[in-house]
Input
Amino acid sequence: MRAHHFNMSLEMRTENTNYQDLYSGLIRIHILHHACRGEVFGLWMIEELERHGYRLSPGTMYPLVHSLEKRSLLSSKEKREGRRYGRLYRATPAGRRAFMIAKEKVSQLFNELFEGKRHSAHERLLRTVERTLARD
Ligand SMILES: [Zn+2]
Output
């Protein structure tokens, strides 16, 4: 299970750079998802997305979260832990609303992508049954 996930991540990683535009919305939704659940550091999000097979440099991640903040979907505050220092992000109420709508759209797309498979398998089965019945 673990190895499978790892292989899939590697595969996705090689594709990542070629189709960045296809994934940018997914990445934003993923960021919003975690920022709705709690406060997140930019660096943590880079690691989290890497775990899911998206390789983002800080030079890509920070403009991305800044743009979400500029659109008032995220808010941020500075956090100092000893000598470590960073910016914590969390979803605003507008960010939560935007996330709920995006989540619904992801759910619909997910259903179409994966229900479709089940449908065609079901249709193939039906055709086989019909052919079998026609033969009798
Ligand atoms: Zn995640």
